[in-house]
Design brief:
heterodimer; A: 397 residues; alpha/beta; Spore Coat Polysaccharide Biosynthesis Protein SpsA, Chain A; 2 domains; seven-stranded mixed beta sheet; three-stranded mixed beta sheet; 14 helices; 12 strands; B: 449 residues; Rossmann fold; six-stranded parallel beta sheet
Chain lengths: 397, 449
């Protein structure tokens, strides 16, 4: 039995090492070879509509939005969607937009659809108002570098892909929980985004940044095609792949600003994502436990006996070391803060224990908290509302 | 809940056939259609049952496309669903295994157990499009205040014994049948003649026009015949017939150079791969605009995405929205609305001989893909008997060639015309009158049947 456990732990460590190596190779701010769009005439740049659904005032919202007005790209517009004109974020958006009158900005108050994915509802409204042939969908808590859009469009031009996704860089931690959340984004989420794409060509799309060709999206019927599903980002990538459109990434990271998360907000977000992943691909979700060697080692103690106690510190050591490597190389912003280094080992252990609790949640409930509402999700993250009599949505058999 | 006006319409989500039959009747009730077994109807335990039955149905529909084992599986399914030969005529009223199994499902597994409760508040007639709900309604204790009429629409040109209850002579189910063959079959199963009404399959009124005028149908049919007869061969034979039945003073001489083919992939998506072969062959004509291709993908996202993949593989994706149109919605009712709208512009309907066979009455020539199941084999036979359906004369990879030949020879126009003349068009109206006033008459005039 203990051989089986050792094999499991070995497999887990190997995958985590691979994940670390991949994030180190494709780290943010690495030197890239070639920037093909530099040679393009202005008229050759495709017009990009930046679509930003906004809900609430995220950490560093003003600076985040400001970064989109400093893009080193000649032709783009920025379209915002909010729930209502009374929302606090409207004032911030207007303030930023007023500082940059040369960049076409539009704000739509789209309201809230009771039964549709709220983000998709906003994106559908924005899509109908946009002029660009490319849509760059980014969340409000995303901050970008001036060359981010140019790099994404370069990848679009070179690879012929209709959909470009990005790894996410969690940054700007100011609390213990935000450090946990950012580390988990950089190691677990982006590590898997890069590794699964590089090794298995499987797109794991996180909706923080998606560059989408409008015409290709239109063949599916536009964003509306995804209105009944909560994990719209993953499904957009999957649908594009299955529809024969090329999907790609050039590993251009976008920063997810997360300064003041609390343990509760971290748990809720992770639990929501866990429930969605569980509904999207159960075997993959079940195997995720392998990425938590500390929990594996602890759980194996009753089986292998106290003689193997050293497995636990070994697993913790390996995990802390790999995550720390990732932290030092990937998260340039947070590594300058000495408290983060000091708290790091404790943070990893706490995070992994919370992850165990998070891991178990989908087995007990399929209801998620999202944007102020509680939504029950079914297979493929289908939103399970009670349909009206003339709305028979096909339930995938 | 508003009170329904004419009848409760009960369908199930088992492929699109039973829903398509119910859709034209949706205005019979302000409540719309009752899709039994879907999320908002039936008890939770029962829903799981329906889901399992639906999954099995979709699996069985697709099994034929699996290599090697698929063919064997298909043969087994055909054997289970077998419809015995009609000749020599004989008494077939003895229940078969399927009837007994359905009885067990209703009595022991309590399939449809909450249906009488759901309908308890009134005694309006019920129109079913699936046999299980009709038979369950009859066998479960009725909870409504009065005597309720129970109708069942038959969705194929011939049927298995399972559509009729164990004791047909005692049954009070009224059958609304699409063609003579079904009536004859029901008689052999022991159904009383007074319980059989030859109404025809319910077709969408948006594709017909009024009952007496059939304005929409006539306009669409004439335009279609002109597009399907570029050489004038069809009109050389049938000019007077067309003038008479379409009430035309003069047949226009202008002919259009293009035509529209719709390929309807079944609800289970069993023949999605055929779309690839059609696209491959018709690709050059699509690019030049001589053929417009409508791909009806139903309600399954995987079918739409697979179809898009084929379009991409053929490098035709820039034709989407121009000469290729995809008909899809994951809302079944939106899908039917789209489908019926596009059908008006369709010149050739390529489909397996499902319930869509009866759409030949709209003056649509039907190119028949391989049937799945014995009932579709018999739909195919019916279509061939009335000359409204054509078996592809060559492989789909060469459909560009043989479609052109069939069009040049006026065969497609002829099939369209035969379908219009011989198949029943007025099912929706006849069912409405039967429910509303008890009026029923059998006509032989093409415009009155």
């Amino acid at each position: 039995m203990y051989i089986a456990i050792l094999i499991l732990l070995g497999f887990s460590s190997l995958y985590l090492i691979l994940l670390t190596v991949m994030t180190l190779i494709y780290r943010p701010n690495r030197k890239k070879t070639g920037q093909p769009t530099n040679s393009l005439a202005k008229s050759d740049y495709p017009w990009v509509s930046i679509l930003k659904p906004v809900k609430g005032v995220d950490d560093g919202l003003e600076a985040n939005l400001e970064s989109f007005y400093h893009l080193d790209y000649p032709v783009y517009e920025i379209l915002f969607a909010v729930d209502s004109w009374q929302d606090r974020e409207v004032e911030i958006i207007r303030r930023v937009a007023d500082r940059h009158p040369k960049i076409y900005t539009r704000i739509l108050a789209t309201g809230h659809h009771p039964t549709e994915n709220p983000k998709i509802h906003k994106l559908t409204c924005l899509e109908s108002e946009s002029r660009g042939c490319l849509f760059w969908v980014t969340d409000a808590n995303v901050r970008v570098e001036p060359d981010t859009l140019r790099c994404l469009v370069a990848e679009y031009k070179v690879s012929g892909a209709r959909f470009i996704f990005s790894p996410i860089l969690g940054a700007a931690s100011r609390t213990f929980a935000s450090l946990m959340e950012n580390t988990s984004l950089n190691f677990f989420t982006s590590g898997n985004v890069i590794t699964l794409w590089k090794i298995f060509s499987k797109p794991v799309v996180v909706g923080k940044s998606m560059l989408i060709e409008g015409a290709a999206l239109k063949t599916l019927g536009g964003f509306k095609y995804f209105k009944d599903y909560l994990a719209e980002d993953y499904l957009i990538g999957k649908s594009f792949m299955e529809s024969g459109f090329r999907v790609s990434t050039d590993y251009t990271w976008v920063a997810n600003i997360n300064q003041r998360a609390t343990i509760k907000s971290f748990y809720k977000r992770m639990a929501r994502w866990a429930r969605l992943r569980y509904q999207l691909h159960r075997p993959a979700y079940l195997s995720e436990i392998l990425l938590n060697p500390m929990v594996l080692a602890l759980a194996s103690l009753p089986v292998v006996g106290a003689g193997f106690w050293w497995l636990v510190p070994l697993a913790i050591g390996v995990k802390v070391l790999l995550e720390y490597l990732n932290f030092v190389v990937v998260n340039a912003q947070d590594r300058g803060r000495w408290q983060n280094h000091l708290l790091f080992p404790l943070m990893v252990v706490t995070k992994d224990l919370i992850f165990l609790a998070v891991y178990l949640t989908p087995f007990f409930s399929s209801t998620v908290d999202w944007r102020g509402g509680r939504i029950k999700v079914g297979k493929n993250s289908l939103i399970c509302h009670k349909p009206s009599f003339e709305q028979l949505i096909y339930e995938e058999a | 809940m508003k009170k329904p006006e004419l009848a409760h319409i009960i369908a199930v989500h088992m492929g699109l056939g039973h829903l398509r039959a119910a859709y034209p009747l949706r205005n019979f009730s302000s409540q719309g259609l009752i899709i039994w077994g879907s999320r908002n109807y039936a008890a939770p335990g029962e829903k799981k049952y329906w889901r399992l039955i639906r999954k099995t149905y979709y699996f069985l529909s697709r099994v034929g496309s699996f290599p090697v084992v698929g063919k064997i599986g298909l043969k087994i399914i055909m054997a289970i669903q077998r419809i015995p030969s009609f000749y020599p005529k004989k008494d077939l009223s003895r229940p078969n295994l399927a009837v007994r199994f359905l009885k067990i499902l209703i009595k022991r597994a309590r399939l449809c157990r909450t249906l009488p409760d759901y309908l308890a508040s009134d005694c309006l007639p019920v129109i079913n499009t699936f046999y299980a709900t009709a038979i369950a309604l009859e066998s479960l204790p009725e909870k409504s205040p009065g005597d309720r009429k129970n109708f069942l629409i038959i969705c194929d040109a011939d049927i298995n014994r399972v559509w009729v209850p164990e004791r047909p002579a005692a049954s009070r189910i009224n059958y609304l049948v699409p063609c003579t063959q079904v009536r004859n079959r029901l008689l052999t199963y022991g159904v009383k003649p007074e319980n059989i009404f030859m109404t025809g399959f319910p077709l969408p009124v948006e594709n017909l026009g009024t009952e007496t005028g059939l304005e929409v149908l006539k306009i669409d049919l004439l335009a279609r015949l002109l597009r399907l007869d570029p050489s004038g061969k069809f009109f050389a034979y049938h000019r007077h017939s067309v003038s008479r039945w379409l009430e035309l003073k003069k047949i226009p001489e202008d002919r259009e150079n293009h035509y529209t083919v719709m390929y309807a992939i079944g609800g289970a998506g069993a023949q999605t791969d055929l779309a690839r072969r059609i696209l491959k062959s018709l690709g050059p004509l699509i690019r030049t605009g001589r053929v417009r291709l409508l791909l009806s993908c139903g309600v399954q996202r995987r079918v739409l995405e697979k179809t898009l993949k084929f379009i991409n593989q053929q490098g035709l994706w820039d034709e989407i929205g121009r000469n290729i149109h995809l008909i899809f919605s994951d809302n079944v009712f939106e899908y039917f609305e789209l489908f019926n709208r596009w059908l008006r512009q369709t010149d050739v309907l390529w489909t397996k001989p499902s319930e869509l066979s009866f759409y030949c009455a709209l003056g649509l020539p039907i190119i028949m893909a391989d049937p799945i199941g014995p009932q579709e084999e018999l739909n195919k036979r019916w279509l061939m008997e009335i000359h409204a359906g054509l078996v592809p004369p060559g492989p789909p990879e060469y459909c560009q060639e043989w479609l052109s030949d069939l069009r040049e020879n006026g065969r497609l126009a002829e099939a369209a015309w035969d379908g219009f003349l011989k198949a029943r068009k007025l099912g929706t109206y006849k069912i409405k009158r039967l429910i509303e006033n008890g009026e029923y008459s059998e006509e032989i005039s093409p415009l009155k049947q």
